[in-house]
Design brief:
Blueprint (H helix, E strand, L loop, with lengths): L15 H37 L42 H33 L18 H26 L35 H28 L1
Length: 235
């Protein structure tokens, strides 16, 4: 074939008419996508407004097939002879047995669909919280559930007790800077030497307090003696 005749063939993909047809198809497909997106945005906005108004949201519309799509391209449940391929008879059963079997299958499918829809409706009813309370005041946040708060408080107490036991277990083999004074204590508590003098049951001060008192007495006596000596020398 002569190459200069190739561009004039109708089946040539680089033909001017074919290129224009492809561009028109692409533009039409883009317009359909934009229209479907706009319609979806409108439906979403309508559903949000209905939910905010505490109303039943409108159902979603099924996406429509594009007008250029051929019905033969979609999969069909019917065979070439026009009969339903799912309604075939099994080995050893007649038409009555087949119809009864199919009726039981359809009933089971319908029951499963009803249970699924009821579950979805129940969950949707739980999610749709009223915007007004019993007095008619608008509340943006739902009131907390007492059972949930009680469970959270119990969990907090259990976690605190668990952390305390873990710290006690770690104190058996762990050395902390707060324990450098020789007494185990929490970091927020005051050191041992800053505590006030305590008396025992007999009303007598402890041995450490007595030692500190005698030491202070000796220091004061030494200071007093040195002060008197200085005064005598000056005279």
């Amino acid at each position: 074939m002569v190459l200069h005749l190739l561009g004039k063939k109708s089946w040539n993909v680089y033909n001017k008419d074919n290129i224009d047809r492809v561009r028109r198809d692409e533009a039409a497909a883009q317009a359909r996508e934009e229209e479907a997106k706009r319609r979806m945005d409108q439906e979403d906005a309508a559903r949000r407004i209905a939910i905010l108004r505490n109303e039943v949201p409108p159902p979603l519309t099924a996406p429509s097939s594009p007008p250029g799509e051929n019905a033969a391209a979609r999969p069909s449940r019917y065979g070439h002879d026009g009969r339903d391929r799912k309604r075939r008879r099994l080995r050893g059963e007649d038409d009555t047995d087949r119809d009864m079997r199919l009726a039981r299958e359809d009933a089971a499918l319908g029951e499963a669909a009803r249970e699924k829809l009821s579950h979805i409706e129940g969950k949707r009813h739980e999610d749709n919280v009223a915007l007004t309370d019993h007095a008619g005041h608008i509340q943006l946040f739902a009131a907390p559930n007492e059972r949930t708060l009680l469970a959270d408080s119990r969990n907090a107490e259990a976690e605190a007790e668990k952390a305390k036991k873990a710290r006690e277990y770690e104190d058996q083999y762990t050395m902390r800077f707060s324990n450098a004074a020789g007494c185990k204590q929490s970091p927020s508590s005051a050191p041992c030497w800053t505590k006030l003098k305590k008396k025992n049951d007999g009303g007598r001060e402890s041995v450490d307090a007595n030692v500190i008192t005698e030491r202070e007495a000796r220091v004061w006596a030494a200071l007093k003696a040195s002060h008197l000596t200085t005064i005598t020398e000056t005279k």
